[in-house]
Amino acid sequence: MSRKNGFSVVSVFISFLIAQITCEEFELENTESLVECVQCVQLWRSASAKEGKVCTSGASTCRGNACFMRQCKHCPVYQYMSGCVNFSPWQLADLEMNRRTSELRMRRVGAVLLCEDTFNQTTCVCNRRDKCNSIHSRLPFATYSEGLFKGIVNFDTIIAAIDPRYLEVMSGYHFRFLASSSSVSSLSSFIAIIVFFLFSH
User: Fold this and answer.
1) Strand pairing class (61-64; 35-38)
2) What is the CA 179 to chain-centroid distance, rounded?
3) Which residues cross the membrane (predicted)?
């Protein structure tokens, strides 16, 4: 066998090993089997003492081919949400592709939770065991930057099916947040123009 052919065989073998490793690292199983998921919406205690402890060990459950959980950082009213999601094969394929191109922020050995971290919330999916989305579980996770789930799954819609109040509350929050951000940006631009005018004369 020529040296060139030998190099080609080695290259193909290395590429195969890399593909296998990448495939094994994907946190979700590409399967249609259903898992049992915790389904609950927990409010901040300041919003409702009654609904502030609903995501307990006795919370309701549902079944899907994956579970999700979302922890809010700055949301009004809402603290934590969890439930089921049913990914199609193409959604799982797109999710794995997004994962490969997203910035990895943190990874624990043996990660079974695939998470996206944004300014306002952390959202995770899993399907390797029942109730993997329980707030009481301490499962290893891999966290990626914003954009991991973009164009693949809309968790706001899924959460709204569990709690119809969610979209109304969050849309009002986003409007106020964007308006305040826009005001700060406009003020900064105005100050920059004044400073430029003063120093240019």
Assistant:
1) antiparallel
2) 25
3) 177-199
Per-residue pLDDT 10s for the chain (201 aa) are 555 555 454 444 444 444 443 444 788 888 888 999 999 998 876 555 565 567 888 889 999 999 999 999 887 788 899 999 999 999 999 999 999 999 999 998 889 999 999 988 999 999 999 999 998 888 999 999 999 999 999 999 999 999 988 888 877 654 343 444 444 444 444 444 443 444 455
The count of structural domains within the chain is 1
CA–CA separation, 24 vs 4, rounded Å?
30
Measured CA to CA, the distance from residue 65 to residue 26 in angstroms comes to 15
3-state helix, strand, coil in the chain (%, to 5): 40, 25, 40
Report strand pairing: 113-117 vs 141-144: parallel
Q: Rounded to whole angstroms, how far apart are CA atoms 201 and 184?
A: 26
Strands 66-72 and 104-107: unpaired
Q: 54 is in which domain, residue-wise? A: 24-122+132-172
Record the tokens describing residue 150, joined without a space: 């973009």
Task: For residues 193 and 176, give the distance between their C-alpha atoms in angstroms, rounded to a whole number.
Answer: 26
Domain assignment present for 103: yes
